[in-house]
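EI: anyone free to look at a 321-residue chain?
SC: sure, send it
EI:
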Amino acid sequence: KEKYLASASVRYDGSSNFGADNQFGIFYSGSLGWNIAKEDFFDVKFIDDLKLRASYGTVGNRNGITRYAAQDNVEFDSYPGGSATIPSNIGNPDLKWETTTTTNIGLEFNLFNNRIRGVTDYFIRKTEDLLFAIPTADEAGVGAIFGNLGKIENKGLELALQADVFRTDSFKWTIGGNIFFLDHEIVELPEGEDVTPDNAFNILFQEGAMINEHYLVRYAGVDPNNGAPLYYGADGLTYRADDLPEGENRVLQGKSTIADKEGGFFSDIRYKGFGLRTDFVFKAGNWINNFVRSNMVSDGVNIDDNQSTDAFNYWRNVGDT
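SC: here you go
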């Protein structure tokens, strides 16, 4: 194998999704690699390859918006009772490419005649000019307008390992797996103002917060004296629902819909011309607003619907929680 590796690319992409002056974007990438195991000074017999590599590059995204989002469009309708045209899309001629810049540093190794193989990668991915349906004031009467919004940052570490447990001319059994750790943050929003997305339920975008972080009133359990549900106000104190202070009592709780750990493992058995592969994947650390469960353990309003047996666990006597 080669001792030194290098590559580079440049793309010039165009899309009619964007404004006339912003339809084209230049994106580039480059990478370098050094296989230390091929150097004369390296003399560790069981290490076949030990490759240090780094890359840097940009890529453009045009998904996340509708076609012709940059243009003003109308549709036919009636008003009041006669034929008319009404606005169907408020265009944004400044709409442009969403750009992601990724810096990656990794290490690859092969051991014992390539019987054991592994990779570790650390990356920083910064995305700016995100394509987004930006809400407008209700008084505008136009709903949301597609535009480019703010900056986000993702940082991650991935570890992967696989090995040939048995390896002969006619039979091979390989097992392996990987795990991925992710941190993410909203870095910048227009004028630093919070943004509530139109297509999400109780999600708030805020500078310094995680992406897709839940924005909810916090449940404080049951009043053991009378069974009333309790909630935390914005001041951190406990209230019954009817007594919550005026104003916004929802808060960000550090709980995102995005998993901070993902991965999987596999087994691959091959015998002559036959093979059997099994794959397993997992994710953890993401928080789900579980509407199905909330319906199944409801407060008894929909008593004609089936309920979970957990619904029997309710307040009956003073002291119950």
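EI: DSSP finds one helix and 17 strands in the chain.
SC: 👍
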